[in-house]
Amino acid sequence: MKLRTPQGAPIGDVFSFLSGLYFRGKLAYARHFARASGDRHPHLVITTNRGLLPVDRLVTLSDLRKMGRVPIDADDGRYRRPLVGAVTEQLCTGGDDCDVVLLGSVASGKYVDVLLDLLGDRLLFPSEFVGRGDMSRGGLMLRCVDENRELTYVPVRGAVRHGQRPPKLERRPPGASLRHLPTRPS
């Protein structure tokens, strides 16, 4: 409902609602471990047509429709140009000691092909993601928040990005902690 208002809704809430477990896992994980480390850098979302946006940036239904018209394709300039501009402006100014952790898919080149060219060895990802699908990664990140256990970050360059599927995560017992899950926006 917030998307239909003139001010819109935070893009992090919108994506959490649309993708469910996967994006809620990303958002909970990023917020939890940034607080734990004292990191004050914004949590950013890769968009199809606007590059990187902070998770609290308000978007409207019209904005979302425009995003839906552009594919996430490294060869499509409507996606690539804004992403390159945003990375250059927001992330490349952090200096050589500023690493960027990608909590998205590294199996395909849709993010990696653009980001690796710009960030090189500063682009990291959780090695535990190899072989996992979206929902498994989301569940893993939520468990890590519950257990206050950070994943292992490795540089994307030269890493194994495709691998054997790890065992399924064990089912959570009824009443397991879900305190970190944001409520679904209305």
Walkthrough of the structure:
It is built from 6 helices and 7 strands. It has one domain (2-155). Mean pLDDT is 83; it is low at 179-186. The strands form 3 sheets. Strands 5-6-7 form a 3-stranded mixed beta sheet. It starts with 8 loop residues before the first strand and ends in a 31-residue tail after the last strand. The longest helix is centred in the first third of the chain and has 17 residues, at 21-37. With 186 residues, it is an alpha+beta fold.
Provide mean pLDDT, rounded: 83
User: How many structural domains are formed by the residues?
Assistant: 1
The general outline is globular
SSE order in H/E notation? EHHEEEHHEHEHE
Number of helices: 6
| Strand arrangement in the largest pleated sheet | 5-6-7
Unreliable spans: 179-186
The CA-CA distance between the termini, in Å, is 6 Å
Helix content: 25-40%
Count of beta strands: 7
Beta-strand portion reads 5-15%
Helix-and-strand structural type: alpha+beta
Radius of gyration, rounded?
Answer: 16 Å
Largest sheet descriptor: 3 strands, mixed
